[in-house]
Design brief:
The structure is a homodimer. By secondary structure, chain A is of the alpha/beta class. Chain A folds into two domains: 3-223 and 393-411, Aldehyde Dehydrogenase, Chain A, domain 1; 230-376, Aldehyde Dehydrogenase, Chain A, domain 2 (3-Layer(aba) Sandwich). In chain A, 41% of the residues lie in helices and 21% in strands. Chain A has helices at residues 3-22, 26-42, 44-60, 65-71, 75-90, 129-140, 154-170, 187-192, 208-217, 240-252, 274-283, 292-298, 327-337, 350-359; strands at 98-103, 109-116, 119-123, 144-148, 178-180, 201-204, 230-234, 261-267, 287-290, 302-304, 318-324, 342-346, 364-369, 386-388, 396-398, 404-415. In chain A, α10 links the parallel β7 and β8. In chain A, α2 (26-42) packs across α7 (154-170) and α3 (44-60) runs antiparallel to α7.
Chain lengths: 418, 418
Amino acid sequence: MSVQQYVKDLAISAKNASKLVANSPVSVRNAALEAIAGTIQSQRQSLLDANTMDLSAAHDTGLDSALIDRLELTETRVDGMLESLAIVQALPDPIGGIEGLRSMESGIQVGKMRVPLGLIGIIYESRPNVTIDAASLCLKSGNAVLLRGGSEALRSNLVLASCIQAGLEAAGLPAQAVQVLDTTDREGVSAMVKLSGIVDMVVPRGGKGLIERVASDATVPVLKHLDGICHLYIHSDADPAMAIELAVNAKTHRYGTCNTMESLLIDSECAALLPELARPLLEKGVVLRGCEQTCVWLGDDCTLASEEDWSTEYLAPILSIKVVEDFDAAVDHIARFGSGHTDGIVTQCHSSAMQFLRAVDSSSVMVNASTRFADGYEYGLGAEIGISTDKIHARGPVGLEGLTSQKYVVLGNGHIRT
Amino acid sequence: MSVQQYVKDLAISAKNASKLVANSPVSVRNAALEAIAGTIQSQRQSLLDANTMDLSAAHDTGLDSALIDRLELTETRVDGMLESLAIVQALPDPIGGIEGLRSMESGIQVGKMRVPLGLIGIIYESRPNVTIDAASLCLKSGNAVLLRGGSEALRSNLVLASCIQAGLEAAGLPAQAVQVLDTTDREGVSAMVKLSGIVDMVVPRGGKGLIERVASDATVPVLKHLDGICHLYIHSDADPAMAIELAVNAKTHRYGTCNTMESLLIDSECAALLPELARPLLEKGVVLRGCEQTCVWLGDDCTLASEEDWSTEYLAPILSIKVVEDFDAAVDHIARFGSGHTDGIVTQCHSSAMQFLRAVDSSSVMVNASTRFADGYEYGLGAEIGISTDKIHARGPVGLEGLTSQKYVVLGNGHIRT
């Protein structure tokens, strides 16, 4: 059987199973999540053993150390999976309720019911915990899911898949609702993203290369973000101590995440703050690349940024810094070089804060907060299936709601249109 | 200049103008809608003259009479445009407000702000009033719009465009925010739907051929519905008189609309109702095509339906009728043959009604109401930019909200992530 046919057959069986998940009461979906946690607990050793084999194969093929770190399952990380299942189980049912039912002139009542999308495809790399996060969010929202993890994690993911399927069956749901692709063939991804009418949405999670490939191949809708070129703009009315603390946190809390600040904009009126601001960053080993004015203020602590720096997501201890003329120049810079992910302002001026919220067209816009907060857990979504910088459908960190659609519900009592 | 370059230039100027519309207060957007109505009123005679020329050219080229009817502007239809502008003006501002602001464990507050999509492309046929409906909804929701009407309506649409642009300028908004493509070249449509990154969404309105062509060419998101194969299912617990009245209204109120019932399903337990149900339909000249059982009940009043009938949108005085075994068979039939547009149940049984609402996966699901209610005006949306049967982004009749996106708003007071 070809890879295309294998993926299609798997998708069709998952899609059929999705209808049973969609129509199941939340008590059954929650029971499945609890049973999955129970199975993982009882299969803990087989899971760790499979992961050890994945790790050893990864070492042999010379996988880079960052990827190996993400691949590794420790006791703590398995506990994290169980906790994550419990968090999703505790979230309210996102589907089936009818919202905003209102009476119309004609006498009919019109409202909206939130419903599952159907079958979600997730394409991801390394981290086996994505298998559990994705499966739990999809099941809770009444969807089926097709999981395609990285080849380096296949043994771990297959053990997790068997735990998930056992949990589903224990709760009386079809095991086919969660499928892990048992192939490392790249064609599997291409086949999955072209199954229009069967797969309802695809979420690629991983490096920019993977996401670009999926987006250009796909005929089904893709929920994605390509870059996280996040800005913090220090406004002329910023509290200096707050500005420094936020900039340091946004840049140095973690270097490799998409919500890390990559460019700092500072208003010309408070550019004198630059030396004090640079000190803690330099102490943490951050390399600074500034505009001409920034270089005047920072001297040898800074090198001149090239035009390319303004549109680079470093994912590393490097920061570009630009002195901007005023508020409008900051907003223009973000519109031109930003990636629409997360951008913040530091200011004590209420009207500038409100104006920034409106004028900056990014999936998260912040006032006096670290860009690092742009995250499903921090936003109270429980877990996150991904982050979207597109404007269609879901935007920003995507939890349960982004895995649903709404339909209109009309209640009449024999009403006809005249 | 090539058509591609012309459309791209027009789109870029509209996209630039969209930023000013997006950031304008609702008072300014409302003033523009009022000024547009004023300009149409003062240009009424030029508009009717231009329409007369379109009509005369349409007669010469032998355009079919249904299209000519839709093309014609009468005094009443111009009044309808003015009324529609007033209705959209009276709707609350859909953008800029922050919803659901909640405090998180970390101390930050997180909410969502509704924002415009940016630049919308509308592709439509014949009816010049779509020019006004589309422009008013897009402007009210803070978007710019590129309008590509049918070649047969070009003269009427260009007069309307000049009225709209004069109204925009009178309110201090850029005239470029609403553009009517001054070309009848089909390449103009292909060029528009491939402007990813400039055009944010395209809405094709018209025949299935047009919509299929747009959907297959487009690289930008498309909001669309292809078919309206709407069902009414008469449940065993239906009130017979209500069932007959709803069936007659759903089929005969208008034959050519997408929310017209095309297939009637009747529960085997109440199939004896068929002769009484058929009478008023036959009196109105509706041709009946039934399953074998239906033909037994109706005799010469009915011909045997072919398999193809169950998936045909007649848009004509023809109705397919099927006797279904029970509730589940009705739901299965709708899932298999329906187009996900609008489907209803007639029943006095509350639990069957609730089960139907959940189990049928269509953009509108109805209980004891005519399918003809699936409409933006009837749902209280003011006007409608189109109907979507897709599950991603907007679904069902789409008004202002479907022309917007949401972004996360985070308010802190120096909060950092630890």
